[in-house]
């Protein structure tokens, strides 16, 4: 039996335009139409239609977090189905409808165990949908390790890559690599055939290395500015290449700590807005209520919304949420419409789901988020089903 839901009195950001007093009509799991109030009053809805008045809240496509290691005390390195499912369940209260669980570089058996656990729960989620996995390594630079496990880093190994691809069963969406590594072109061409988007990160690539990587199809970049060769006036490096070339998209962690807000404003000024992707890079202890704080099996502490390893005070990752990232971007002068685009349409395009998600237009999946003026989630819908509603 068909089900119709009409969400009324909404400040709708479709990803294309803003409808201040709008109505979105959902039929089963798809968006049927998005209209202004005046047009809606002339329409006839079927009997049994459910009406939801969201009292002027912002309504947009559900957030898509393509780089997230963990949430609410659970993380991918647990390598258990339960942890992936719990991440899915908890993320909906923060407006996330789709995510790419991101797996650290770690010892091979744990790395593959995390992949297996993630793949096995796809289709079983009861919250945010898993679009595919994001592998952060292992083919990354020893000069830009960040919080990755140094002993687990690998030179390009095509046999290993083939095993990972087989294990991924076509569900690896993203992979972070260092473009300067030997045989990277072979790996890039292999990944194109497998539908895996390669992202330059944890890299010491020169400007020339980056151009070679882009030519081979590496057209995205991981947590821009962080864990990559810096900009120098005689060596543009990885950062310079990403700033200069509009073809390559980039992730940003908008917590105000990983990247200075002024540099994000510079990026916004010089980069096409559709090439900027908001991510959280959040770790397992993000929004955790109690217990020890651990990330990738190591004790961490939090300071200024950033997790640091207890052992050596190295930044381990962020405690950002997508909602707080949007709030931060707006506070730094970026229009709300563009901040929403960075959290919805742009990541959808990077992982190749833009024909079904990321915009509020007829025919797209009914993945929808609503939030109030305080940037608190008030409604989350996944596949046309209301999974979170703040009364």
Task: Detail the topology: elements first, then pairings.
Layout: E1 4-13, E2 18-27, E3 30-36, H1 37-40, E4 50-53, E5 58-61, E6 63-68, E7 70-71, E8 74-75, H2 81-91, E9 96-103, H3 108-121, E10 129-130, E11 133-136, H4 158-168, E12 172-177, H5 184-194, E13 197-200, H6 207-215, E14 220-221, H7 237-244, E15 250-253, H8 261-270, E16 276-279, E17 294-295, E18 298-303, E19 306-309, E20 315-318, H9 322-331, H10 336-343, H11 345-350, E21 368-371, E22 377-382, E23 385-389
Parallel strand pairs: 1-4, 1-5, 6-9, 9-10, 9-11, 11-12, 12-13, 13-14, 15-16
Antiparallel strand pairs: 1-2, 2-3, 5-21, 7-8, 17-18, 18-19, 19-20, 21-22, 22-23
Helix pairs in contact: 6-7, 9-10
Short description:
This protein is an alpha/beta fold. The protein has helices spanning 37-40, 81-91, 108-121, 158-168, 184-194, 207-215, 237-244, 261-270, 322-331, 336-343, 345-350; strands at 4-13, 18-27, 30-36, 50-53, 58-61, 63-68, 70-71, 74-75, 96-103, 129-130, 133-136, 172-177, 197-200, 220-221, 250-253, 276-279, 294-295, 298-303, 306-309, 315-318, 368-371, 377-382, 385-389.
Strand content: 25-35%
Mean pLDDT: 95
Level of helix content?
25-40%
Q: Please name the CATH architecture of the largest domain.
A: Alpha-Beta Barrel
CATH superfamily of the largest domain, please?
Answer: Metal-dependent hydrolases
Tell me the count of domains.
Answer: 2
The major beta sheet can be summarized as:
8 strands, mixed
Quick one: how many beta strands?
Answer: 23
The number of helical elements comes to: 11
Poorly predicted runs of 5 or more residues: none
Shape: globular
Alpha-carbon distance between the two ends: 27 Å
CATH topology of the largest domain: TIM Barrel
Strand-pairing-aware structural class: alpha/beta
Radius of gyration: 21 Å
CATH class group of the largest domain:
Alpha Beta
């Amino acid at each position: 039996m068909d089900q119709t839901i009409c969400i009324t009195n909404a400040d709708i950001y479709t990803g294309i335009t803003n409808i201040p007093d709008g109505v979105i009509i959902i039929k089963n799991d798809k968006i049927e139409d998005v209209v202004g109030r005046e047009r809606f009053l002339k329409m006839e809805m079927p009997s049994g239609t459910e009406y939801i008045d969201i009292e002027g809240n912002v309504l947009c496509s559900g957030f898509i977090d393509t780089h997230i290691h963990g949430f609410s005390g659970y993380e991918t390195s647990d390598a258990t189905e339960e942890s992936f499912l719990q991440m899915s369940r908890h993320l909906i209260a923060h407006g996330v409808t789709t995510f790419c669980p991101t797996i650290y570089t770690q010892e091979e058996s744990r790395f593959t165990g995390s992949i297996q656990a993630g793949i096995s729960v796809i289709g079983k989620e009861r919250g945010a949908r898993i679009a595919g996995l994001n592998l952060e390594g292992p083919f990354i630079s020893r000069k830009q390790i960040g919080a990755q496990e140094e002993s687990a880093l690998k030179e390009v190994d095509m046999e290993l890559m083939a095993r990972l691809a087989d294990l991924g069963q076509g569900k690896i969406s993203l992979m972070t690599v260092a473009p300067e590594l030997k045989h990277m072109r072979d790996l890039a061409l292999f990944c194109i055939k497998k539908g895996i988007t390669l992202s330059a990160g944890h890299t010491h690539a020169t400007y020339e290395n980056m151009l070679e990587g882009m030519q081979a199809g590496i057209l995205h970049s991981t947590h821009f500015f962080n864990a990559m060769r810096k900009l120098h006036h005689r060596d543009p490096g990885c950062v310079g290449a990403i700033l200069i070339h509009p073809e390559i998209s980039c992730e940003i962690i908008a917590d105000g700590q990983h990247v200075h807000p002024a540099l994000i404003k510079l990026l916004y000024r010089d980069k096409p807005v559709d090439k900027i992707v908001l991510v959280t890079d959040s770790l397992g202890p993000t929004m955790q209520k109690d217990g020890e704080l651990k990330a990738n099996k190591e004790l961490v502490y939090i300071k200024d919304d950033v997790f640091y390893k207890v052992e050596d005070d190295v930044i381990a990752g962020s405690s950002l949420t997508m909602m707080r990232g949007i709030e931060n971007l707006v506070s730094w002068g970026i229009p709300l419409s563009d901040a929403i685009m960075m959290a919805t349409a742009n990541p959808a395009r990077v992982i190749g789901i833009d024909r079904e998600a990321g915009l509020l237009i007829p025919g797209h999946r009914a993945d929808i988020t609503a939030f109030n003026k305080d940037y608190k989630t008030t409604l989350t819908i996944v596949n046309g089903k209301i999974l979170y509603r703040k009364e």
